[in-house]
Amino acid sequence: MTTKTSRISGFHKLLPEQRLAKVAEAVGLEPSAISHLSNTGNLDISVADSMIENVIGTMNIPLGVATNMLVDGEDVLVPMATEESSVVAAVCNAAKQCRSTGGFFTAMSGSQMIAQVQLVGVSNPEFARLQILEHKEKIKALCDETDPVLLKHGGGYRDIEVRILQGRTGPMVITHLIVDTRDAMGANAVNSMAEAVAPFIAQWTGGRTYLRILSNLADHRLARARATWSLEEIGGVDVRDGMLAAYDFADIDPYRAATHNKGVMNGISSVVLATGNDTRAVEAGAHAYAARSGQYRALTQWEVDGQGNLTGTIELPLAVGLIGGATRSHPTAQIALKILGVTTAERLARTIAAVGLAQNFAALKALATTGIQKGHMALHAKNIAVMAGAVGDEVGQVAKELVAAGKVRVDVAESILKGLRD
Ligand code: MEV
């Protein structure tokens, strides 16, 4: 019997090992589970403890490297952190197939973030809007004073936009502070600026400010990538047309678009995570951008060029940074950046966009031809073999037989393993 309660007084003040002991006691963890969690691998427990609250351990995710990526004429090795099989292989394959046409060509709209200040309680929102716009210079000064380091690095306030929204609770006047955050993702910088500016907006207009927070729909920070896949590399007109039909489907149907974009994000989130950036921020921005027309649509576009080749494009907000947060504190993220060889947040974002496009190409090609399960199952079979107890060379042998049998299941793997060992 365990004494399970979620009330553990002073839990946050304990050391990680003390917290682990408390949890183990509360839920009856075996000594093997305790020693498993005590091994924090390549992230020191003290670093983990400084990153989030109530730490008891760490969780490792495989880190793979995608090869073959040619981005703006340069070869790049791309570290990807993901628990999903096929994701890294998909990027390698797609990247290989567009090398003959020069690989990926990328661009970025800028490195500006938006912070929103919500003003309510004004009966004349149009009037309030102009009152705010009149104070552009003061707002600029307030923003730039808030982050002199950003200013020193060429960033800082760029502009404001003021929008009027009609809510159920009445009109709101929303000020957007547009701030260049350079190599920082910039959440802390712009949130602080919004908090500094808000009391002045309230004072100028006689209204009341509530929310002061960045928008993850970072549409002043759009990363773009394009590539061409020759008919020969794709495998002919039928495959190409199947891929175009798959794209068409995603662009008109939100049910399909969600899965299409999930595939895009398989690639994007893996690099975002490997570099210690905020996966949820990027995902929220990507999906909001996909819905900007009022309908949720595909994040990529596929067309045919004059020679019949398949051309792909992607454009999405990519708020990632090189400084601050886990990118700075997580040693693996630092090494991932070194592997990538990027020295600016812009270069990182552009590479990530290319990975998203590559991922989508591979998924559409698989879906338009053999289906996704064949490739998936080959890799998944290895996981199943390990789950069945296979070790060393047995893993490959069991996986191969599972795929050949067309039944990638643990019970089948167990019986194959038993046969091998007998
Ligand atoms: C699986 O993680 C991703 C795919 O479903 C993407 C897609 O359907 O385009 C294969």
Automatic annotation (TrEMBL):
Enumerate the Pfam families for this protein.
HMG-CoA_red (PF00368)
Q: Does the keyword Oxidoreductase apply?
A: yes
Its keywords, alphabetically, are: NAD, Oxidoreductase
**Record-linked PANTHER family:** 3-HYDROXY-3-METHYLGLUTARYL-COENZYME A REDUCTASE
Pathway(s) served: Metabolic intermediate metabolism; (R)-mevalonate degradation; (S)-3-hydroxy-3-methylglutaryl-CoA from (R)-mevalonate: step 1/1
Select a single GO molecular function from the record's annotations and give it: hydroxymethylglutaryl-CoA reductase (NADPH) activity
UniProt entry tagged with the keyword Membrane: no
Q: Output this protein's name.
A: 3-hydroxy-3-methylglutaryl coenzyme A reductase
The EC code for this enzyme is 1.1.1.88
> Which family would the database say this protein is a member of?
Belongs to the HMG-CoA reductase family.
Organism name: Neptunomonas antarctica
User: What domain of life?
Assistant: Bacteria
Biological process terms in GO annotation:
coenzyme A metabolic process
What is this enzyme's catalytic activity, as reactions?
Answer: (R)-mevalonate + 2 NAD(+) + CoA = (3S)-3-hydroxy-3-methylglutaryl-CoA + 2 NADH + 2 H(+)
